[in-house]
Specification:
The chain has 127 residues and is mostly beta strands. The chain is 0% helix and 45% strand. The protein contains no helices and 11 strands. The strands form 2 sheets. Strands 2, 4, 5, 6, 9, 10 and 11 form a 7-stranded mixed beta sheet that branches. It starts with a strand and ends with a strand. The model has no long low-confidence stretch (mean pLDDT 94).
Length: 127
């Protein structure tokens, strides 16, 4: 089992920055691909960014590419999402997810494919 706890959300003005953190329990964090998703009211959960267990590659959705950066610190069992140049359309609940398969070769982008989820952290961007 993997437990995930997100933090770092809040209210920020457009153009501002936030850094989300996701702390994972257990000893298998370093062997799992991790991802961030977001969900706005009335919308489906949307893939934002993912990072492989090796940390050698990362993937950002087109809507956030160049503004958001995903990273991980395996020594701290933590994955981060640095969000810059925030826009009102980035407003959503942000969720951290861990792949249920260790050492998986690709980053999954569909929410249903992830086995472990955090409780979410709210990000609100005012115009």
């Amino acid at each position: 089992q993997v437990q995930l706890v997100e933090s770092g959300g809040g209210l920020v003005q457009a153009g501002g920055s936030l850094r989300l953190s996701c702390a994972a329990s257990g000893r298998t964090f370093s062997s799992r691909n991790m991802a961030w998703f977001r969900q706005a009211p009335g919308k489906e959960r949307e893939f934002v960014a993912g990072i492989r267990w090796s940390g050698e590659s990362a993937y950002d959705a087109d809507s956030v590419k160049g503004r958001f950066t995903i990273s991980r610190d395996n020594a701290k069992n933590t994955v981060y999402l640095q969000m810059n140049s925030l826009k009102p359309e980035d407003t959503a609940a942000y969720y951290c997810a861990a792949d249920g398969t260790r050492f998986w070769t690709r980053i999954r982008t569909v929410a249903a494919e992830y086995d472990y989820w955090g409780q979410g952290t709210q990000v609100t961007v005012s115009s």
